[in-house]
């Protein structure tokens, strides 16, 4: 298998850390992974994106211009990356950040109202985990168990008490993602 | 500290820091600059001064860093610095002094776009600076070009080994792509720092305290031109030995290929993807990836060029390594170049287009 994913949104939404947890989970499953951020003088409110590649075989370029799957969390990112999804690919977006929804007919489009769900759950920081849950529902690239294992690996021990909240967020995302 | 032989996910910059601690590095001296600040940050987090005794200093500038490396190397210690393009430009005086005085040390350059302060995005535009010496005088330094996070880690010990084997600076020439990306990798096995006795035994030239031997002079200055010419001849003989014995490169998909791409570091990763796309379209393109940029794999390129219809040099710069490729190829083999500049990075599809329009005409 090989999946080339772009995750894009505003800085501060947890785009890079979501990509990192996804990459680490894939590593736990013994796959090859690369995580390539579009780095710059990034800051909260600016745009941020990361390319994650998961594969059974060694990965050549970490830099891509087309993708199998795009997770889009704001309007500028939708405009930039909707055309970059390969025909037959997948687009997931959070309605909260989007004023002009995607229009492509040759890809599978899903909507996830993760921002609303995070507010309801009083877990605003769990936003990116809700989105990741949604992604894993429609593209089962890694198991939830391995995501939790990756969180245990990457989070400092003093934050391990937050893992159950993250699990709840992941499962919420799986529940609320909807095909368009 | 990360456990032995555990597969982990690290940024290239983080890998450099972890590998330095593990390969018996005695000291790091550096000044922060994007896109390589994680090297100093990771060292600060790992606190190796509490475990291996490795010294970590945030110097007041790049000039100070390289001269601290000069001092550490002069006493036989495995010391290093890291920076990005404008910072490495500042270090050139120290590097040529080290070359002249034959002092070993490792410099990591995680390149960004130039000239001047340029941008903070990836580039390979310091190829000339790295492979032509960079400072004044007739000298070279050993230049290793990692193409993965794993190689960032693996080349750390190799750079120290070569620097001390030949008593000269060695550089790891990376860029913002390899420095900032995370990949699956395994850290090298742990190797203790050398004891003072080992340093005295292995570096009889070093300034280790004069007891029981002749004075060791470590200087790049002499007012006697005849002596200086002899010293230059000695350096050139050393460089020739390195050209003969230390060339490293890798080939990919060259068996039966009519066309060749030459690319190093991150550009080689992107080129490999372009070659995969070409293969799906029935085009057979090979690649040679120089691992040592100096010494350059001249012979290997020459041999391959004898059976290639054309060669394209792919670099993230205006065309620098292409000069070395042109000097290497057999007569009559056409060489072209493609590159992006200023922090822009070519995509695999863009390179496929160039393969079709420039390479296979």
Helix content of chain B: 40-55%
Distance between the termini of chain A: 26 Å
- Which architecture of chain A per CATH? 3-Layer(aba) Sandwich
Instruction: Average the pLDDT over all residues of chain A and give the rounded result.
Output: 94
How much strand of chain B?
15-25%
Order of helix and strand elements from N to C terminus of chain B = EHEHEHEHHEHEHEHEHHEEHEEHEHEH
Identify the strand order in the major beta sheet of chain A. Answer: 2-3-1-4-5-6-7
Dominant shape of chain A: globular
Share of residues in helices of chain A? 25-40%
CATH class of chain A: Alpha Beta
Distance between the termini of chain B: 53 Å
The CATH topology annotation of the largest domain in chain B reads as Rossmann fold
Instruction: Count structural domains of chain A.
Output: 1
Q: Kindly give the count of domains of chain B.
A: 2
What topology emerges from the helices and strands here?
The complex is a heterodimer of chains A (180) and B (361).
Chain A: E1 2-10, H1 15-28, E2 32-37, E3 47-55, E4 67-72, H2 75-81, E5 85-93, E6 108-111, H3 114-120, H4 127-138, H5 144-154, H6 163-176, E7 178-179
Parallel strand pairs in A: 1-4, 4-5, 5-6
Antiparallel strand pairs in A: 1-3, 2-3, 6-7
Helix pairs in contact in A: 1-5, 3-4, 4-6, 5-6
Chain B: E1 7-11, H1 12-22, E2 27-30, H2 37-46, E3 55-58, H3 62-74, E4 79-83, H4 85-90, H5 92-101, E5 105-111, H6 127-131, E6 142-144, H7 149-166, E7 169-175, H8 176-180, E8 182-186, H9 196-202, H10 225-245, E9 249-252, E10 259-262, H11 265-280, E11 285-290, E12 292-294, H12 298-305, E13 310-315, H13 321-328, E14 335-339, H14 348-359
Parallel strand pairs in B: 2-3, 2-4, 4-5, 5-7, 6-7, 10-11, 10-13, 13-14
Antiparallel strand pairs in B: 1-8, 6-12, 9-11
